Fold each of these.
Amino acid sequence: MKFQAVPDYHMHTPRCNHAIGTVTEYAEAALLVGLEEIGMSDHSPMPEGFDKAWRMDRSELDAYLNEVSEAQNIFAGRLDIKMGLEADFHPGTESYVKEMIAAHDWDYVIGSVHYIDAWGFDNPDEVKQWEVWDVEDAYCAYYELVAASAGSGLFDIIGHPDLIKKFGHRPPLDSQRVLDAEERMLVAVKKADVALEVSSAGLRKPVCEVYPHARIIARAAELEIPVSFGSDAHAPGEVGHAMDVCLGMLEMCGIHEVAAFSGRERRMQSIKRKTSVTQKSVSAGT
Ligand code: ZN
Ligand code: FE
Ligand code: FE
Ligand code: ZN
C-alpha cells in the first residue's frame, strides 16, 4: 500500500443472511492486511415488514453486540474494533430507527438508502425494475432520499452515497436535474455535519467504480465535508479492499484526512503516505 491504513468502518456478519465470517475472522483479516482499526456495521433491525430477509432480527441484536464486544477484548492492544451499525433510511421508519439506536451505545451509525419506495434498487432480484423506471427519475428520487437521510439527524456516516449506480445504469452526463439533485444531496450532508462514506464496494459490482463518483468526492472536498472509508465487506477477505485506490482518489481531490469515530464523536485523522523506496524504482523505470 502507498498509504498508511485508515479505519475501515463497514463490514457485516452472517446475521444479515448475506455475509459470511465471524467478527474474529474479520479482525484477523484486518490484521493480515495491516489495519489498526475497523468497525463492524451489520444491517440493523428495521420495523416489521421492511426488508426482513436482508438484515438481523431485533432478537439478534444483543448477540451482535456481545460478539463485537468479545472481539474488542480478544484483540485489545492489537486492533481497535468499533461498534457500529448500518441502519436504513426509509421514510416512515425513522422513529423505530431512532429508538433502536438510542437503546445501545454505538461508536457510529451508518445511514444507507437501499429502497426507493418499495423498490430495492440495489437488489439483484429487483434489477428488472430498471426497465420500468426512467434513469434520471431514479437518480433524482435516490438523491432526495440520501439528502433526507442526512437531514434526519439519525446517522453519523452516509453509506455508499451513489449506490443507485450499482448495476451501471447511468443518466446522461449533462442531465442538469440529476446534477442538481446530487448538489442538493451534498449541501444537505454539509448542513447536517455528517460524514460521507467513500466505499470500495462499487469496484466489486457491475458498475466497477468507487462509491461515490470522483466528481462527488471533489465537490465534497470543496464543501469541506468529512469523509470516512468503508469496504462494505460481506466476507473477511474483503476487509480493507482497495483502500489504496480510495485514498489515492481522496488525495487527487485534495482531501487529506478521514473521519474516525468513538462514542459517536468524530475526529479527523490525517491520511499519510508511507515513506518508501519507490523513488528508486521510479527513476529506474523505462
Ligand atoms: Zn449487505
Ligand atoms: Fe448498504
Ligand atoms: Fe453494508
Ligand atoms: Zn452496504
Note: The chain is about 30% helix and 15% strand.
Amino acid sequence: MKNIFSLENKKVLITGSAQGIGFLLAKGLAEQGAEIIVNDITAERAEHAVAQLTAQGYRAYAAPFDVTRCQEVNEAIDGIEKNIGAIDVLINNAGIQRRHPFTEFPENEWNDVIAVNQSAVFFVSQAVARNMVERRAGKIVNICSMQSELGRDTITPYAASKGAVKMLTRGMCVELARYNIQVNGIAPGYFKTEMTKALVENQEFTAWLTKRTPAARWGNPEELIGAAVFLSSGASNFVNGHLLFVDGGMLVAV
Ligand code: NAP
C-alpha cells in the first residue's frame, strides 16, 4: 500500500533547526525521506547540524539567515529556490522565550519576542508562499504553543506572539488554500528542551505540571514528530487552518 505519510523527494525548510525541537523534527522528517534545509541565525551551528544529519545518511543543506530581517529572508529564500530547489514544506519553528513580570517587562525584550516568534513567521511564510502559489502546491506548518490559547505568569509577550501565530495560521489558510497550499499549526504542550530546562529542574513546577496534565508527565520532544510528518505529508491534504495540540491532554482539562 502506498505510504501516504511519505516525504520522499520533498524539500523541507525548518527555521531555527540547528538544535532543540527544530533539529529533532529535521531528523524525524528526514527519516521519512525528506531533504532538510537547516536554517539558523548562526552559520556555524547550521552547518554543524547539517554535518550531523548527513553523517546519519540523510540529505541536508545549511541556509543560515536571520528570520527577523525581511530583506535578508527574501534574499535567502530566492537563493534556496535557485541553488537547492523548490521548497515543498516550510516549518516555522524558530522561537525565543523571555520571562519577567508584566509591569517590569523591558521594551527591548518585548520587541525581540515579537520579532522572532511573530514577525518572522509572516516574513518567511510570505517569501516562501509566493513561490508555492506559482507552483499551486505547498505546506506551511507553524510551531505554536499552549500559549496560543492560555496565558501564563511572566510570559505575556510570548503568549501574545503565539496567539498571533495561531491567527497567522488561520489567515494564511484563508488566503492560500485556493492555491493548494495547506497551512496548519502544531501546538506543543510542555516538552523537556533547552527552552524549558529551568522549569524541568524546578521541582515545584514539575509537580504542578504532572498534576495539571492528564497524561501526568512532561512530553518528550520525539513525540512531536508524528504531528509534523502528518502535516508535512499528503496524509493532510484537506486539513487546513488547524492547530494540532500535542499536549498530553492539557488544553482540555480544568
Ligand atoms: P530552542 O532550543 O531555543 O531553539 C530555537 C532555535 O531558533 C535556536 O536554534 C535559535 O538559534 C533559533 N533562532 C532564534 N532566533 C533566530 C533568528 N532570528 N533567526 C534564525 N534562527 C533563530 O527552542 P525550542 O524549545 O526547540 O523551541 C522551538 C519552537 O517550539 C519555538 O517556536 C518554541 O516557542 C516552540 N515551543 C517549545 C516548547 C517547549 O516546551 N520547548 C513548547 C511549546 C512551543 P540560536 O540558539 O543560535 O539563537
Note: Helices lie at 20-31, 43-55, 70-83, 107-135, 156-176, 197-201, 203-212, 225-232.
Amino acid sequence: MQDLNKLKSKILAEIKGAKTLSTLEDIRLSALGKKGRVTALLKELGHLSAEEKKTFGGALNQLKGDINSDLNAKREELEARALNTQLAEDKFDVTLPVEPEPEGRIHPLTQVLEEMMEIFAAMDFKIAEGPHIEDDFHNFTALNIPPEHPARQMHDTFYMKADQGGERKLLRTHTSPVQIRTMMSQKPPIRIIAPGRTFRSDSDATHTPMFHQIEGLVIDEFTTMGHLKGTIEAFVKAFFEVDDVKMRFRPSYFPFTEPSAEVDVGCDLSKGQVRIGGGNDWLEIIGCGMLHPKVLEYCNLDPNKYQGFAFGCGLDRLAMLKYGMPDLRPFFESDLRWLRHYGFRALDIPTIAGGLSR
Ligand code: PHE
C-alpha cells in the first residue's frame, strides 16, 4: 500500500510538471497504457486472495481515477495556454494600408430594369415571364396578327427550322406573347409587367438583333383609357424624375389594341443632348392601347365582361434616353471601359429591398 502511495505521488508530480501536450501523453501511456505502471499492477490482481483483491483492487481503481482526473485538468490547462499563445502571436496591425478590392459596376440595363420594377411594384404590378423561343400562336396569331397580316412584316422575325409537323418556332419579336400566356393561365384582375429579351433581324446604332422590352398588362372589369393614361403618366414621371413632363398620346395602330396610341414625351434636343422635361421636341417612347376584343377572345376571356390595356416599350431605349447613351451596340459588347463609364456603383442603386428612395 505504501508503494502504491509513492507511485501515486510520483505520477501526479510528473503530470503536474508536464510542459507540453506530448509529454503529457507520454506520462499517460507510461501509467495507464498497455505496458504502464498502473496497468502492470492491475494485471497482478489475479494472483491475490479474495480479501487482498478487494482492498488492493479498490485502491488501484481509486489511483486510476485520480490519475485520469489530473491528466484531464492538465490537458485543458495546456490547451488553453497553447491557444492564448497563438492568439497573442496572431496580432495584426490595423494601421496597415488595405489592399484595394476591385469594384464592379451594375450594367445600365440592370439599373433601369430595377428602377422600373420598383415603380410598377409600387402600383401593385407583378412580374411575369415567358420563353424566348415562341410559337406562332403566342407571338402573332393570338395577338390578332393572322398569317397573312401585313403587320408580320413590321417584325423582322428570326425563324427556327420547321419541325416534323411543319411548325416553325421563332425568337419572340416582342414581349407581347407574355400577355397571352398570362391571360391564358391567370384569372382577372391581372396587373403584370413582363420585362425581357426580344429579337429582330435589325442592326444599326440604335437597333441590335437582341434588345429588351418591358410589357405591361392590366385586365379587370372596369378598365378605361383613363387608367392607361394615368398609369403611363405616373411611370414616366417617376422614371425620368421630372414632375411637369409633357406627354402626348398620338393615335397609332397595333393589331392587338384598339384604340392604339404611341406616347411621346416632351424634351429638349437642342444642345446635342436629350433632356426630358422642357423643350419643344418630342420623342416616342411607348406603344399602348386598349386590348382588342379578339385578343381577349383568343384567351377565353369574355370581352363584354373584361376590358384592359397594354403597353410596351424598349428598355434599352429608355436607358439610353435617361442616361444619355448615344449608341446601343456597346450595351452588349462587354467592354469594361464602357461599363466603368456608364455602369452604376452597387451601393448607389435604389434596390428592390431598399425601396426607391435615394
Ligand atoms: N408589342 C409592341 C411592339 O413591339 C408594343 C406594344 C405593346 C404596343 C403593348 C401596344 C401594346 O412594338
Note: The mean pLDDT is 90.
